[in-house]
Design a protein that fits this description.
The protein is α+β, with helices and mostly antiparallel strands. It has two domains: 3-120, 2-Layer Sandwich (hypothetical protein PF0899 fold); 136-225, Tumour Suppressor Smad4. The protein is built from five helices and 17 strands. It has helices spanning 3-12, 18-23, 29-42, 64-70, 74-92, and strands at 45-46, 52-53, 57-62, 101-106, 115-120, 124-125, 137-140, 146-148, 152-157, 164-165, 176-180, 185-189, 196-198, 201-203, 205-208, 213-216, 219-224. The strands form four sheets. A six-stranded mixed beta sheet has the order 6-10-9-11-12-15, with no helix packed on it. The protein has a six-stranded antiparallel beta sheet with strand order 8-7-17-16-13-14, with no helix packed on it. A hairpin with a 5-residue loop joins β7 and β8. The longest helix is centred in the middle third of the chain and has 19 residues, at 74-92.
Length: 227
């Protein structure tokens, strides 16, 4: 039995077939599941040693009427869709940097029966990084994720050994580091392939001021320090 068939079988048992009633004549769950599989395949990134990374966060936008009709069942359906995506990725041998999530949202511009799927990769902070007393931190411009800076050195990169992992193929495994002593912060490029920019200028070492922007690959991190 394939991934989609298992998904349909599980769905049949949820809330005594309520999904069949909700989706009758509008969006079919299996169509959404197929679209999620295609979305993952369309956004593959080749990592080292032949590994393939795909997004871990998926957003399904539904037309206002469809979204309203589905509201009661949104949570279990999103969970089943996430399980289905995980099974598909395992079958394909693909990997993600974080937990797979599917979110159902309203698309105001969509007409009934039409849906839209998008995806992204969430950055992950690994290890235990104590917050500096002044609240110095890096903020991802795209996702809004907030990464606390510890006293000492924080390594930024794509690899498992980085303190702050940034899953972007334009970022080296150990791309850059930020040294923070409680008073000032200094960013150093660690010999990365694509270089490190601060406020659009390539640097090897740079003292950071609040609201400076560090760019590595497609990721931009804003440095912020409470004064």
């Amino acid at each position: 039995m394939g991934v989609l068939q298992r998904f349909e079988r599980r769905l049949e048992g949820l809330v005594e077939g309520a999904f069949a009633h909700v989706f009758k004549g509008v969006v079919e769950p299996v169509e959404v599941a197929s679209a999620l599989q295609r979305e993952a395949g369309d956004h593959k990134a080749i990592l080292g040693q032949g590994r393939i990374m795909v997004p871990n966060r998926y957003v399904v936008e539904l037309a206002p009427m469809d979204h309203e009709r589905l509201a009661t069942y949104a949570e279990p359906l999103a969970k089943e869709l996430a399980t289905m995506v995980g099974e598909h990725l395992k079958e394909m041998g693909w990997t993600t940097f974080g937990t797979i999530r599917v979110e159902l949202e309203q698309g105001a511009d969509l007409r009934t029966g039409v849906f839209r799927v998008s995806s992204s990769v969430d950055a992950i902070q690994t290890g235990s990084i104590p917050t500096a007393p002044t609240g110095a931190r890096l903020v991802d411009d795209r996702s809004g994720r907030d990464f606390a800076l510890r006293h000492g050195t924080t390594v930024l990169g794509r690899g498992d050994e980085a303190d702050i992992r940034l899953p972007d193929t334009g970022i080296s495994r150990r791309h850059a580091q930020v040294y923070y002593d409680g008073d000032r912060a200094i960013v150093n490029d660690l010999g990365s392939t694509n270089g490190t920019l601060v406020n659009g200028q390539q640097i090897s070492e740079q003292v950071l001021r609040s609201e400076d922007r560090i760019q590595m690959g497609g990721v931009v991190l804003a440095f912020r320090a409470d004064t």
